[in-house]
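DM between two lab members

TW: hey, do you still have the Histidine kinase/HSP90-like ATPase domain-containing protein entry open?
JB: yeah, one sec
JB: this one, 140 aa:
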Amino acid sequence: MGPVVLMPEIPTLVLESTDRAPGFARAFVSARLREWGISDDYTARLVVTELVANAWMHGDGPIVVRVIQDEQAGAVVIEVWDGGEGRPFVRHADCDDTNGRGLLLVSRLAIAWGIRPLLERGKITWVKCAVSATERSGTS
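TW: and the structure you got?
JB:
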């Protein structure tokens, strides 16, 4: 038998598809980034709010949120899974439109983003966000 490699657990949150899901996801991402010593979580909170809102409004079934730290790139990857078959796309909304700008905003704030289909059904929408670590308060 070869060596066993233990992988760190990926922080994961499973949400019911309701109007409260974006707020829970935002708090979850913010807490994970704080654990990693990242205090500037504005972009990550905005991105997860948009992705989870899209999953709630246009997806199907429970919503899964995962946060993966990419220390080498100074970034985090946020994944939002849902069972919906539709694929999100960037719309160019008119000035009078009251919605439809979320993914455009995400695409401008992200290092990269994309969509991967799930084998069972549904998709993962992922976004890589730049972050910078800060020293934790109270340490010397």
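TW: got it. The CA atoms of residues 4 and 87 lie 37 Å apart. The domain at 12-130 is CATH 3.30.565.10 (Heat Shock Protein 90).
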